[in-house]
Amino acid sequence: SQQGEEDPQALSIQEGENATMNCSYKTSINNLQWYRQNSGRGLVHLILIRSNEREKHSGRLRVTLDTSKKSSSLLITASRAADTASYFCATVGEETSGSRLTFGEGTQLTVNP
Amino acid sequence: GAGVSQSPRYKVAKRGQDVALRCDPISGHVSLFWYQQALGQGPEFLTYFQNEAQLDKSGLPSDRFFAERPEGSVSTLKIQRTQQEDSAVYLCASSLAALLGYTFGSGTRLTVV
Predict the structure, then answer these.
(1) Cβ contact A30–B105 (<8 Å)
(2) Contact (CB, 8 A) for B13 and B111
(3) What is the pLDDT of residues B36-86, one digit of tens each?
(4) B31 to chain A: which residues are within 8 Å by CB?
(5) Tell me, what's the pLDDT at B1?
(6) Which of A20, A105, A101, A32 is CA-nearest to residue A67?
(7) Between chains, do B48 and A45 touch, taking CB under 8 Å as contact?
(8) Distance (Å, rounded) from C-alpha A11 to C-alpha A30?
(9) Which of B41, B42, B55 is facing A97, going by the closest CB pair?
(10) How far is CA B54 from CA A72, A79, B57, in A?
(11) In whole angstroms, what is the distance from residue B56 CA to residue A55 CA?
């Protein structure tokens, strides 16, 4: 079963704008990860944030984590047409064996040139 | 190899047929996971290996699904007597260590007709 929910389910923006995607989860976590998936391809790991971290940056990506609200956000700044993809958050639970990932439903981002 | 390799890329099976899906993880990666992704959904956990030991198979949907990793590297996911609801993309992921990001393969798209 899916861990939580992502919103929006779909997001369409113009090139150069910022895109914000949100993720909520249900159980206590060890870390939360964001992945990107282009149509018909595998998932690409973007960024990992640990439960004791609040914010993390990687290039044009900014991730925040609020464990009190069990939520995370992914911000992509200065978006490009090549950023068009599905974005998934995934959690590793505190008591999960083997660090398995539990994924959300994903946000489909479309960046229009 | 440089990444996680899965084969075949596409598989069409007649209902009732057995199929075998192969995953070649990154050399040296201890952890290996299988996920099932239905169209428009996030991936769902199937099973987890640490080296050759299958430590968690709680996500396998029925006893028709079987996975193995006999020498701790290549893994095979076998589905017996396939049914239409087995149609999905099957993703394999590997990781060097727990609590790090995972590298996913491009997946095998299984269509049962």
Answers:
(1) no
(2) yes
(3) 999 989 999 999 999 999 999 999 999 999 999 999 999 999 999 999 999
(4) 98-99
(5) 54
(6) A32
(7) no
(8) 28
(9) B55
(10) 31, 41, 7
(11) 31
- State which residue of chain B sits closest to A51, comparing Cα positions: B99
Cβ(A43)–Cβ(A36) below 8 Å? yes
A31, A41, A99 ranked by CB distance to B106: nearest: A41
pLDDT value for A97: 58
Mean pLDDT of A51-76: 97
- Separation CA B1–CA A86 (nearest Å): 26
pLDDT at residue A73 above 70? yes
Chain pair A-B, CB pairs under 8 angstroms: 67
Task: Give me the residue from A2, A30, A92 closest to B42, CB to CB.
Answer: A2
| B5, β-bridge pairs | B24
Residue of chain A nearest B38, judged by CA positions? A105
